[in-house]
Automatic annotation (TrEMBL), chain B:
Gene Ontology BP annotations: spore germination
A GO cellular-component term linked to this record: membrane
Keyword Membrane listed: yes
Protein name (record): Ger(X)C family spore germination protein
Lineage, broadest ranks: Bacteria, Bacillati, Bacillota, Bacilli, Bacillales
Localisation: Membrane
NCBIfam families: spore_ger_x_C
Similarity remark: Belongs to the GerABKC lipoprotein family.
Domain Spore germination protein N-terminal: 47-219
Transmembrane segments annotated in the record for this chain: none
Domain of life of the organism encoding this protein: Bacteria
InterPro entries registered for this protein in UniProt: GerAC_N, Spore_GerAC-like, Spore_GerAC-like_C, Spore_GerAC_C_sf
Domain Spore germination GerAC-like C-terminal per the UniProt entry, residue ranges: 234-398
UniProtKB/TrEMBL annotation, chain C:
Alphabetical list of InterPro entries matching this protein: Spore_Ger, UPF0353/GerABKA_families
Protein's UniProt keywords contain Ribonucleoprotein: no
Keywords: Membrane, Transmembrane, Transmembrane helix
Biological process per Gene Ontology, one example term: spore germination
Gene Ontology cellular-component annotations: plasma membrane
Family from the record: Belongs to the GerABKA family.
Residue spans crossing the bilayer: 301-323, 368-387, 393-415, 427-449
Source species: Bacillus yapensis
Membrane topology: Multi-pass membrane protein
Stored Pfam families: GerA
Name of the molecule in the record: Spore germination protein
Subcellular location: Cell membrane; Membrane
Length: 296, 413, 501, 66
């Protein structure tokens, strides 16, 4: 009987931050490698699966009110089979947390401070995440709220500042190699959006689950919109050919902003990804800890 | 799993909140971990570089000497002795050169000569010597793309001699020659000329996109009164892929800028109507060009729609050019000029086998099927026609309607 | 000196023992007086005045140093004399013209009242006594606040008398709903404190919680409100941030009460406490409400920005100049490089030394008399800084950064949050000297999580920033005109949120 | 609980041989399929089974003899 309660907006904000940031950092290059100048079509194509996953998570949580994924899997599938499925989820959470934290570390070592051992970043982030998880879900949710509120203006600012360098004719020709590459690019986006499933560990603590389905679907649409800017921006600036094969294309676009005195905005990028990765790692760590606690 | 209950007030009752933690022992572990971590940190400062341990590189020249890359780095020279503490953004510079089989190798060798670590994050300009440019610039910029320290905002220029010579010139306006060079290009619109202003990022984009070839600004040392005193922006260098093929000078060199809509605030000269050997000068205040290819059979027609506005600011002919009949002539002359620039530069580039206007890219954008047929060779350049429409508007004529020159003439009549 | 009660029993234990043994007031006057003389000491400021008539004998006892002589003479002795002259049998119906008269039955009460500056009237042959309020002694008049100065607004500030202070608040909030809950705390000091709240606005749970926590206090003496502050703070989690607000301006406290907060006044100090306190409260000056809303909105924004700057600026400076030179605009970098030449220390050490010097100067300036304080700041700030730069020990940019930080930290309207900011600034400086931007961000994130985890009397510290309350944002970064500020803070008041009806 | 899990993640991510190149390749090739399976297909299956159960219960409730 947990009395932790967060609002559904807070819960969904957790989802938004965690997906957006690792998405921008690690998935956009993947999408672009696959889909090239048609990445935006991949993005649009991913809308429906994204809404589907949002709907599914919300519906499951609504149907089994107050139960987390761990508990309702066991209710639905029976004790042992349910546990097996939970174990798969758990492994995934673990994997995702590892990858995103490692991704942040790699980002720092290859783009910001190359001589600092990567361990420093990993441990520091984990210490922070551990501390936040210790403080409880409410604290995580509130911290994330602050983070997201800071990140969104930075993101908008960044895409506004890079506007000068963008050439939207780089998107022509559309579908040069028909739909093949676009499908390839859609899959990473879908997988990225699927990770909102982690919210199934959070939804039991939401104090008001009315209209949760609608809210989740709106969240997914917001997520899509948050990816439109960076995905198109990178292609518009670098051209499809050069955009393929950049490790951190979004960071590079920020790095090269030069508008009068507004130059060298690396710090924005660093801030963006550090804060976001923190949110994501914290969320996943919380999910893992909670899932293990409920599983055994 | 241990459950801990803590009490918290809220909503009147004391609620029991269950927090999942096995706290008591973990507290100690956490503290230990934190202490360990901070101790670990204290051994840190891995990436630290004090300002007086780095040499800020402002410009880099790349030459090819005996199949090796020769890198010349121009660094800011810190003030000595009494000057210390003075500061200011114009400090004297020092240039140092070294060779190596790769660019990074050469930079390593440079660091053997420099007591301070060369720091490339504030690179203003990268200069390619003529010889290197003819062999290909792509291998020379690989490191600049990769390294986190360097920035894609550095300007790229070509010089006719060696880059080292150019960097080592002392000039009259400004202490730091590479900064002067970048200002020569970046602030060209203020000085009413136009430069290509190709940055590392643009070059990366252009080189990796099929169907377009780069054009770089050319900067040469300029002798005045028998001594090099300044730099000169001298036309553009035309590349085929990453290899320098030739140069274009004078008004022809503006073709690429016209196509890329970059001609704002520059000056166009034209012949006065009815009078040979008399000229007017026209300043562009608003310039926009739209390019669209059109495919008819085998012929590619590049439709260029130029709209420009501007001021008539100077004339040598004693005519009131604002009269309607002359006005049309002036506008026609401007259109002629623009057409000539575009076509002449293209002609030169075509002979060098270079698609500087990105005709191929445009064709690909609108006729991807056809592009698949023609890609791979630059033959299509021979089948390109131009259809240039210039819509020019003379908006203003400075502070006077007709110049004194006209009045003088009226008197004499 | 201020250990918990159960530990300090030695020096006055005899007196206490006497007290406990003899509870009731003795009927014989002389015996009584003798006893009190024993307790307070014969040659102390304990005084006795006898009034003797034909059939009666009474004594007025008081502690001379606590009593206002005029009141005693005019309002106690004179009426007593007059009334007793007229009729001798109406002793029980004596009418005195002092503030309050209380019947006392036991000795402990008598002593308590004596120590509060009351005069006690004892009768021969009766086991009853009357206490008359003759409290006096020297008090500072209500004067202008020196620590919280404003341009526009009331000049009054609290003084050391709790009654005056309560009066100052009552004068501002003239409603019977203003509840004053007086208590006496401190085994030896017997300090009176008062818990003020407005019924129907303050959340009853929080009021109860405050009172419970105050009742739990066990201490021998309370000399300043900080004792209370520390003893009623949330004990769960350590935090460098103040979770109890303090002010010596009655208008500030009154504003807090109207928002549904609870004020705690302590006798003997002009500093009153206000709970629950949130981050925003510390960054608000009461002048924000006395200036036009557009101006005060700008000031609020500026102040918030300065507060942030005063925390991160040294760290940011070190991080940028030793780790991330690529992020500094080129002309600036070249300029700073020029200054750095020949400076012996690294930037981190340099700025740490300068910050430390500044802190020392500030501390020195506070402790010194006002006239000398100014001289210290001139010598320290101007001469020392200038000399350090000219000697080539520090770069000019560092001096600028330190000075800017210092000025920014002075914009914080609340002194104790400024001190906290100072502390955090050094930690962030260390982190960013070690790890660069990552260190700074790490520190800020830690701070953020920490700030979100603390609560002041069940109200989240960062409220209303997070948890998000739309209405309360009107008074967070900006201040909207009063006509749009319709609601009281959400977390603090539960019902009766409307300011206007 | 938090600390051990954190430590475990730290160890895994340190021992993880996936450096940037590795992560990139992994993300490009296998990860999407795996994640899509775990987080999209599995929840959908869960939902479907739960739906089936629900309808079955409804039918039972309406018609206890069936």
């Amino acid at each position: 009987m947990e009395k932790i309660s967060i609002t559904k907006i807070q819960a969904l904000m957790l989802g938004i931050t965690s997906i957006t940031v690792t998405g921008h950092l690690l998935f956009i290059p993947v999408i672009i490698v696959h889909a090239g100048r048609d990445s935006w079509i991949s993005l649009l194509l991913a809308t429906i699966p994204a809404m589907l996953i949002g709907f599914t998570v919300a519906l499951l949580s609504q149907r089994y009110q107050g139960y987390s994924m761990v508990e309702y899997s066991q209710i639905i599938l029976g004790k042992w089979f349910g546990k097996l499925v939970v174990f798969i989820f758990l492994f995934y959470f673990f994997h995702e947390a590892t990858i995103s934290i490692r991704g942040l570390g790699e980002f720092y070592t290859s783009a910001v401070t190359p001589r600092t051992p990567i361990m420093v970043f990993l441990i520091a982030m984990l210490v922070l995440a551990g501390y936040a998880v210790r403080c409880g879900l409410e604290v995580i949710a509130r911290t994330n709220q602050v983070i997201l509120v800071t990140l969104i203006p930075i993101g908008i600012l960044a895409s506004a500042l890079t506007h000068k360098d963008k050439d939207y004719r780089n998107f022509l020709p559309i579908l040069e190699d028909s739909f093949g590459p676009v499908w390839d690019g859609t899959l990473p986006i879908i997988s990225l959006y699927s990770s909102i499933f982690v919210l199934s560990m959070i939804f039991p603590f939401v104090n008001d689950t009315k209209q949760l389905k609608r809210y989740s679907i709106i969240t997914m649409i917001i997520l899509i919109m948050m990816f439109v800017g960076p995905v198109t921006g990178v292609v518009a600036i670098y051209g499809a050919e050069r955009a393929q094969g950049l490790y951190f294309p979004t960071f590079l676009t920020l790095r090269d902003i030069e508008i009068g005195a507004l130059q060298r905005l690396d710090i924005l990028g660093i801030l963006l990804w550090s804060l976001g990765s923190f949110s994501k790692v914290t969320l996943f760590l919380y999910a893992i800890v909670l899932a293990i606690a409920q599983l055994f | 799993m241990k459950l801990r209950t803590i009490t918290k007030i809220g909503n009147g009752k004391i609620e029991h909140i269950i927090i999942l933690t096995g706290v008591m022992t973990n507290m100690r572990i956490t503290k230990c971990c934190l202490i360990m971590f901070f101790l670990f940190l204290l051994s840190g400062c891995w990436d630290k570089k004090e300002l007086n341990e780095v040499a800020v590189v402002m410009g880099v020249g790349i030459d090819k000497v005996d199949k090796e890359y020769k890198i010349t780095a121009q660094v800011i020279k810190p003030p000595t002795g009494e000057q210390a503490g003075g500061g200011g953004s114009e400090l004297p510079t020092w240039s140092v050169s070294a060779t190596g089989r790769t660019v990074l190798g050469a930079i390593r060798n440079l660091n053997e000569l420099s007591p301070r670590r060369l720091y490339f994050a504030h690179l203003q300009v990268i200069i390619f010597g003529d010889e290197l440019a003819r062999e290909g610039i792509a291998p020379a910029i690989a490191w600049f793309e990769r390294d986190r320290d360097s920035r894609a905002g550095a300007l790229l220029v070509v010089t006719k001699g060696t880059a080292e010579d150019l960097l080592n010139q002392k000039i009259e306006l400004g202490n730091v020659s590479s900064k002067s060079m970048s200002e020569l290009i970046e602030r060209s619109t203020i000085r009413q000329i136009s430069a290509m202003e190709i940055k590392l990022r643009d070059l990366m984009t252009i080189l990796s996109t099929p169907g377009i070839e780069p054009v770089l600004d050319v900067i040469n040392p300029k002798e005045i009164r028998g001594k090099v005193e300044t730099f000169e922006l001298d036309g553009v260098a035309i590349f085929n892929k990453d290899k320098l093929k030739g140069y274009v000078y004078g008004s022809d060199a503006t073709g690429t800028e016209i196509i890329n809509s970059k001609l704002n605030f520059s000056i166009i000269e034209g012949k006065c109507p009815k009078q040979e050997e008399e000229y007017f000068a026209f300043q562009i205040t608003d310039f926009l060009s739209k390019v669209k290819p059109e495919l008819k059979g085998e012929r590619i027609t590049l439709k260029v729609n130029v709209t420009l506005e501007g001021n008539l600011l100077d004339q040598t002919c004693p005519l009131d050019l604002l009269k309607t009949e002359y006005l049309h002539a002036v506008e026609k002359e401007i259109a002629m000029n623009i057409k000539n620039s575009v076509e002449n530069e293209f002609q030169v580039a075509k002979n060098l086998g270079s698609d500087i206007y990105g005709v191929g890219r445009e064709v690909r954008r609108f006729y991807p099927e056809y592009w698949k047929e023609i890609r791979g060779s630059s033959d299509y350049l021979n089948r390109v026609d131009f259809d240039i429409k210039v819509k020019s508007n003379l908006r203003r004529s400075g502070l006077i309607i007709d110049p004194t020159e006209v009045k003088v003439k009226e008197e004499t009549d | 000196m201020f250990k918990l009660r159960n530990k300090t029993k030695q020096p006055f234990s005899q007196n206490t023992k006497n007290l406990e043994e003899q509870q009731t007031i003795l009927s014989e006057l002389d015996e009584n007086i003798k006893k009190y003389k024993e307790i307070f000491g014969d040659k102390s400021d304990f005084s006795v005045r006898y009034i003797q008539g034909d059939s009666f004998k009474l004594a007025i006892v008081y502690i001379a140093s606590l009593v206002e002589k005029d009141i005693l003479d005019q309002h106690v002795i004179k009426p007593l004399n007059n009334q007793l002259q007229q009729s001798t049998d109406t002793i029980d119906k004596i009418i005195l013209s002092t503030n309050k008269i209380k019947d006392l039955t036991n000795q402990e009460d008598v002593i308590k009242h004596l120590l509060q500056g009351h005069s006690v009237i004892l009768y021969d042959g009766k086991t009853m006594a009357y206490a008359a309020d003759t409290e006096g002694g020297e008090r500072r008049p209500v004067s202008e606040s020196t620590t919280e100065t404003i341009v526009r607004g009331p000049r009054e500030s609290f003084n050391e008398s709790i009654m005056t202070n309560i009066g100052l608040i009552r004068k501002r909030i003239k409603t019977p709903k203003l509840k004053v809950n007086k208590k006496t705390i401190g085994k030896e000091s017997n300090t009176s404190i008062a818990v003020l709240s407005i019924d129907g606005i303050a959340k009853t749970e929080i009021v109860e919680e405050v009172i419970t926590r105050i009742d739990k206090i066990k201490i021998d003496g309370i000399l300043e409100s900080l004792y209370i502050e520390e003893l009623i703070e949330d004990p769960k989690r350590y935090t460098p941030f103040p979770t109890v607000f303090n002010s010596e301006r009655p208008d500030r406290i009154a504003a807090g009460l109207l928002e549904g907060r609870i004020a705690i006044l302590v006798d003997g100090t002009p500093v009153a406490l206000l709970v629950p306190a949130t981050m925003g409260l510390f960054l608000t000056s009461n002048e924000d409400y006395y200036q036009r809303y557009d101006i005060s909105s700008l000031m609020k924004l500026l102040r918030g920005f300065c507060f942030l700057l005063s925390i991160v600026l040294p760290g940011l400076y070190v991080g940028l100049l030793t780790y991330h030179q690529e992020m500094i605009p080129t002309p600036l970098l070249v300029a700073v490089t020029g200054q750095r030449e020949g400076v012996p220390f690294g930037i981190a050490i340099e700025i740490a030394i300068m910050e430390l010097t500044f802190e020392i100067l500030r501390e020195a300036g506070i402790r010194l008399p006002k006239t000398v304080g100014a001289a210290v700041s001139i010598v320290g700030g101007l001469v020392l800084g200038q000399a350090a730069v000219e000697a080539g020990l520090v770069g000019q940019a560092t001096v600028i950064a330190v000075a800017l930080t210092a000025i920014c930290s002075f914009t914080a309207p609340s002194y104790n949050i400024a001190i906290t900011a100072r502390m955090i600034r050094f930690i962030l400086l260390l982190l960013s000297a070690v790890l660069g931007a990552f260190g700074l961000i790490f520190g800020l994130l830690f701070l953020l999580v920490h700030l979100n985890s603390i609560r002041s009397f069940s109200v989240p510290y960062m409220s209303p920033l997070v948890p998000f309350h739309k209405e309360d944002w009107k008074d967070l970064f900006i201040r909207v005109p009063w006509r749009y500020m319709k609601q009281r803070p959400d977390e603090i008041t539960n019902d009766n949120q409307n300011r206007k009806r | 609980m938090v600390v051990p899990m954190g430590a475990l993640i730290a160890i895994v991510s340190i021992l993880n041989s996936e450096d940037l190149i590795g992560i990139f390749r992994f993300l490009k090739n296998y990860y999407p399929l795996y994640v899509t399976f775990v987080c999209l297909i599995l929840p959908l299956v869960l939902l479907m089974i739960s739906q089936i159960k629900k309808t079955r219960e409804k039918v039972k409730g309406r018609n206890p003899n069936v």
